[in-house]
Amino acid sequence: MATSEQIVSFLQQRAASAPSAQELMSEAVALLQRERPSYHWVGIYLLQGKELVLGPYVGRPTPHTLIPLGRGLCGAAAASGNTIVVDDVRSDPRYLACSLETRSEIVVPIMRDGRVLGEIDIDSDAPAAFAPEDRQLLEAVAEVLAARLP
């Protein structure tokens, strides 16, 4: 398993050479899921107008390809510009159920110049799967992605 520093360093190098933001995002979600076994669903939503539109992801299919700003955990994170960590999605009324197996979720806004561009959304089938180190890693990855997004 790669360290957080190795993951961020790799993505920084790829950000400089990836032919497109789409390719960089695809590599990022695949890398995160591969290197963190508790990350069962890893996706990126991009903010378009007042909706989050699903971009690259790995994991089970989701019915939530469009999420209105402010709706669900993803919409709340995008509206506030703050990372949201939920240890038990079943206890949070904002949770939009995608899979019966999902137990915890972290949503990290991708921001540049104070503006939300999108977010990294990760679900885990384990309760309380996300530690402070996960938050730090994903916020660093969000910074790398923000530099390449339009």
What topology does this entry show?
Layout: H1 4-17, H2 21-35, E1 41-48, E2 51-58, E3 66-68, H3 72-80, E4 84-86, E5 104-112, E6 115-124, H4 132-148
Antiparallel strand pairs: 1-2, 1-6, 2-3, 4-5, 5-6
Summed up, what is this model?
With 150 residues, the protein is of the alpha+beta class. The protein is 37% helix and 27% strand. It has 4 helices and 6 strands; from the N terminus they run ααβββαβββα.
Total domains, how many?
1
In helices, the fraction of residues equals 25-40%
**Total DSSP E strands:** 6
Radius of gyration: 14 Å
Largest sheet: 6 strands, antiparallel
CATH topology: Beta-Lactamase
Helices and strands: which structural class? Answer: alpha+beta
CATH architecture, by name, is: 2-Layer Sandwich
Label this structure with key terms.
alpha+beta, 6 strands, six-stranded antiparallel beta sheet, globular, Beta-Lactamase, 150 residues
Please tell me about this protein's structure:
The protein has helices at residues 4-17, 21-35, 72-80, 132-148, and strands at residues 41-48, 51-58, 66-68, 84-86, 104-112, 115-124. The chain has 150 residues and is an alpha+beta fold. It has a single domain, classed as GAF domain (Beta-Lactamase). It has a 6-stranded antiparallel sheet, with helices on both faces. A hairpin with a 7-residue loop joins β2 and β3 (66-68). α1 runs antiparallel to α2 (21-35) and α1 (4-17) packs parallel to α4. It is globular and about 40 Å long.
